[in-house]
Amino acid sequence: MNHPGHSGTRPREARRANTAAVLQLLARSGPLARGDIAKELSLNHGSVSRIVEPLLSAGVVRELVERPVGARVGRPRVPVELDSSSRYSVGVHLGLERTTLGLIDLSGRCVETYAETRDPADSAATVRHAAELAAGMADAAPGPVLGVGVTAGGEVDRATGRVVRNDVLGWADVRVDGVFRERTGLDVVVDGNVAALLGAELTFGAGLGRHDVSYLFIGNVTETGFLRRPVDTHSNGIVQGGFGRLLVPELTGGGYGRFGECGTDVALLAAARSAGIVATSLGELIRLAATDPAAAGLLEARSAQVALVADTVYDLMRPDLIVLGGSGAPSDRWLDAVRDRVETAPPGALARPLARGNPLVVAAAGLVVRAFFTSGEWS
Fold it and tell me: 217-240: per-residue pLDDT in tens?
């Protein structure tokens, strides 16, 4: 499907928009010859050359070996591709007990990760120290760093770069971006966990090249993110919300409850303990289910809950893809169980996250890479 290039009365804005379109196309489908880029984006060859040449000079893209053109006479078909090692991004996740950092390249590959345990009670000290760690990681990067992405749970205001409220951390109105920007001297993007996780899937993973995607995060909290079109109705087209109020069958039968209360990992592991099952994580419970009928029954009940949530999201949003993330994401068995139970959502529309590496680090750093791909500007 063609994605028309952008034109208009403002050449600079049109150039940025077209540059962004080229970067996203190369990220999704590269390497491509200039002629293929022109055809895919409905641009003329001259426009593509004026976009590609500065990217080559900046090292953002590189030329590959010329493709043979047979006996035909004409311009050589020299493919170009993104040079994933030309730019890097630092990601910082502010979790309950740990601060986790990572450095990724333009392909979403984790180059380095670091984590340390901390006391979340002092929000100012936590943010200052995280900014120090981010500055050190950026200084040691093997190439230019585009910026720093920071994620946290709860309500996060991307526009002002602050954590509005995080009940788990006990934070309220904590400004994040200014501290990171002052310490690192880099651009800073701050967003919620699920919005960032969805952004990573759109940039590097299951949602690459998609336009209507929902992300369901199911762990100790239950949150959702979805991509809203047109993109310019929101800062980056992604909206984060929750579905914890949705009524689902309780894990042990006997009625219905809110998913945010009876469908979380906390509720699932509590039900497991009540049944005499020793499991401290969903991963352990999944492994036990291979031989323990009681554990298998709890997972079947949880899968039925998630299937109902997925059906509801599909009925309301009609997304092309629903990514099921959270603690169960690494398990094909869990995904297959949900697929078996959906009624309105097409089973093939359900997918696991595919972004590589530490999910939260890639998601945080991916905030900056996605902004880079969609802005048409670089440094």
Answer: 888 777 777 765 544 433 467 888
